[in-house]
Amino acid sequence: QSVLTQPPSASGTPGQRVAISCSGSNSNIGGNYIYWYQQVPGTAPKLLIYKNDQRPSGVPDRFSGSKSGTSASLAISGLRSEDEADYYCAAWDDSLSGPVFGGGTELTVL
Amino acid sequence: QVQLVQSGAEVKRPGASVNVSCKASGYTFSSYYMHWVRQAPGQGLEWMGIINPGGGSTTYSQKLQGRVTMTRDTSTSTVYMELSSLRSEDTAVYYCARELYDGSGCFDYWGQGTLVTVSS
After folding, report:
1. Tens digit of each residue's pLDDT (9 = 90 or more) over B2-28
2. What is the DSSP letter of A59?
3. Angstrom distance (rounded) from CA B91 to CA A83
4. Residue A87 — left, alpha, or beta (φ > 0 → left; ψ -120 to 50 → alpha)?
């Protein structure tokens, strides 16, 4: 089981807004930034959100991140078919002296 | 442009060792820590460890401590990950990933992945 907890699946129809949650503890999310990665099956993960709510260049503003206490959330608005992928949250864990990941959420666009 | 190019797929017997390389280009090699992350078939991401390409210092996950060794060659801007005493559970895609901010878990560039299959 992963240190960070995510729902295994999420779904939505085109144009809809979906949110993916990620919960942890004071040693990881509570005291450090959260990061989100998008992984299309068969490819390497791609950085989607950094430092809780920042988007790298090239990431559409349909993607947004937030953090509160020991939980975080990734929101995708105006859902598109190309958003179908696995999404992972990550944060540094001070107790483990390394990063920890969520188990991943498989997003399906119906 | 930044690139991380990994070595090719490997098939190993249980008990053997595997060495995966990751050649970096497009940036100053010693300026960014490099991590290794693996992903078993149909599973999530698992952190393996980190190497400082500048000084060579390493930190490994507790789970893999004693079986994993990370090294670097600054002359070729390449990092290596060796995993020994392989078991079937080590079958996974292994990624190298550049850490953008030290001690963050923020990986801005990833290698293409190397599939390691452990089978008798």
Report:
1. 999 999 999 999 999 999 999 999 999
2. -
3. 28
4. beta
Please choose, from the candidates B115, B107, B94, the residue with its C-alpha nearest in 3D space to the C-alpha of residue B32: B107
Q: Best residue in B106, B107, B115 to probe A by mutation, most A CBs within 10 Å? A: B106
Question: Which chain A residues are Cβ-neighbours of B22 within 8 angstroms?
Answer: none
Each residue's pLDDT tens digit, B48-76: 999 999 999 999 999 999 999 999 999 99
CA distances from A83 to A11, A38, A80 (A): 10, 9, 5
Which 3 state secondary structure label does DSSP give B29?
helix
At B38, which amino acid appears? R
Residue type, A56: P
| Residue A30 near residue A24, CB atoms below 8 Å | yes
Of B44, B106, B113, the CB nearest to A35: B106
